[in-house]
Amino acid sequence: MAHRDIHLPSVHLRPPRGWVNDPNGLVFHDGRYHVFFQHNPHSAWHAAMHWGHYASTDLLRWEELPIALSPTPGGDDRDGVWSGNAVSYGGELIAFYSARRDDRWYQPVTAARSRDGRTFTKDPGLLIPDPPAGLTMFRDPYVWRDGERWRMLVGAALEDGRGAAVQYSSADLRTWTYQGVFLARAPEPLPGGADTEEGWECAQYAPFGDGRGAVLVSAWDPARGAQCTAAWTGREEGGVFSARLPAQRLDHGPDFYAPALLHAPDGRLLMWAWSWEARDEAYVGAPSAWTDAVGWAGMLTLPRELSLGADGRLRQQPARELKALRGPERIRTAGSGTTELGAVGRAAELAVHLDGDAGLRVVTSADGTEYLEVRRDPVTGEVVVDRTHASLDARAKRGAWRMPGGSGELRVLLDHSVAEVFTVDGEALTVRFYPVGGDGWRIRTTGSGAYEVEAWDLG
Known about the structure:
By secondary structure, the protein is mainly beta. It has one helix and 35 strands. The longest helix is centred in the middle third of the chain and has 6 residues, at 289-294.
């Protein structure tokens, strides 16, 4: 690549080249946050998965470390070191992952261990070599400490058409005993026309104390592949999770998948996810002439804080550390009606309050025809994020998405080709867009309603 692609992010984690998908192995170990991720360093194709690796002491400045895990030729993971997680215990960083071989429909669970937090030695055998009976999908281990024992969820699909998270327990992180199904549900509708699907990838458990918790899943369709994310909140009773509310969509946008949790040392639950491309690929992971040309695909979202609201629903906000990325303030104004507010860079944060039919556009072309729009629906109160006009390149995907708007108070985090939009009430929407109109990004309000806007470039 002779020059930096204008759509390559500057504050979202990803290497400058290659394919990126699921965050893996999110863990605080030896004074640093570690973020691993699915990575093909050789091309922008979903193939030959490795574990890439970043580390940070503050969630702001990240060091890219050498590839942590690679497929072993002829081994159980010869076709890919697929998704999993990691724990810090006894001075070791222990990664659990799915061993991919193209001649198996399931992915056995295995592990690798590190003393220095950089170089890993793979276990000689498989921890869980075969799936339980009655499954048609089995992958993506998630391990956590529960009192004196360790527990593991594995994403699954049951033969009867239900998505599932099956569970195991261990006293030593080496010998694992099957404990049955933790949660299984038939496909349930989600906002935006999606559903929870027949198979679950990347099943994760978020404990909130007193038996309360949430199961997070990535919804997988047997015919169409990766779709969206969902969560159930409820209680664990007798080793089985009981959902107390209908399924909740974790992110209301089209470009968010495989959320993964990190237990921070201060007690917070942090979450990253994969934001895939919305260029010219026919479906997620399909060949793309555009991504081949630029040499990269996929990124990780910014870290989010996950909490349980008084109403029993999951809430999320950008990690509080991210405010330190704000540079000098570019815009601070309030008013009503349609007006130009000022310029921002390609990586920027907006703090916005919208009333009535007020909205704003991130205008990315000199003539104003290319713009990403965020507006409030005055009838429903929903926030609408619309990328219909967000790229002058005809190959870019289009569309508009909605989420509950609450009070109309928003944070919008922009980074070259991604927008993460949050309401003060804890809803989120992630969308990819590909402006080609130049570097002069401007903020313009729309509608007749009142607005308040602050903006900073992100560094």
